[in-house]
Description:
The protein has 12 helices and 15 strands.
Amino acid sequence: MKKKYILGATALAASVMISGCKPIDEPTAAANADVPVPSLTTMEMLTESLTDADTEFAEYGEPVTTSETAAAETAEAVPAGGDTEPVQTAESTESAATETETASRTETEVRTVGVESISLTFYSVTLQTGQSKMPIVTMSPENASDKSEIWTSSDTSVATVDNMGKITAVSEGSCTVRVTSAQNPEVYADVEVTVTAGVQITYIDGILVVNKTYALPADYNPGVNSEAQAAFDRMQADAAAEGLNIYISSGFRSYDYQAGLYQRYVDKDGKAEADRYSARAGHSEHQTGLAFDLNSIEESFAKTKEGEWVNRNCHKYGFIIRYPSDKEDITGYKWEPWHIRYLGEDTAKAVYDSGLCLEEYLGITSEYAE
């Protein structure tokens, strides 16, 4: 019923508007003379009726689109400037997401560079109980993002290893120490470790013996012997009373210090020559804390007033010239007129009076095993 009413009203409105806009011929005018022409008030009423009809029509469930509404919708759909934006479809959205994910993954792969190999400065080592050694580790490639190391020992009762790679011998036996890349556990390197019994300190006739045959443990670290230092102080004072100046130019040396010193001499003169005037680590009398080098470490020291005085008098204070000029084939070292060794006054006097070197006096050798 509402639809019919609306259509009728619309037709009537159209008729009225046409009548007012087109010229009417005389017959037609006469025929319609009896039809009342709507007044302004009637037109207003008709407009209101149409408006009410639009409202009712909308409420009835069918949308009404006016020219103004269509224009507004068109304005919203077209951006400023008149360019029409492409319609965003599900396929294009999915494609954009895939491209973003791929770019993100590629960027991550560029930032993360994995460890591919591990190299060490040594892959096998023989240690005596108590000794320690640490290989230098190189992980490749150089720009690997994580070079963290994981260290393990196959048998901690034989050798332990800390998180820096320092291997320490515990007891006789063999084991494997492994360093693994924390980033890539499939990459690792092994060190085969052999542990032998520790070096024992050797005393012969109450004398601590250290030479090429007899060694000291790496951890033997007594420092300067206080009795030897006191004896030297007395000797220094008596020499000063005679106008002479004697002093210690090198005293106690640790195992590690001697190792570095000996290696520098090897690098400079070669191993064979270095063995003539420098002791290998563990074989130096300086590690006992009982030996001193005096003044100038040159053979010319023997011809100085101080050198001559020491040669004649040091036994009175408990010292001997440890490496005499004509005993290299027995002591294993060249003449060192500056090197004195403390034995105690009685023993030093006995060795001095015998005219023998210490090896001859004790009946021992001085030769490296290899």
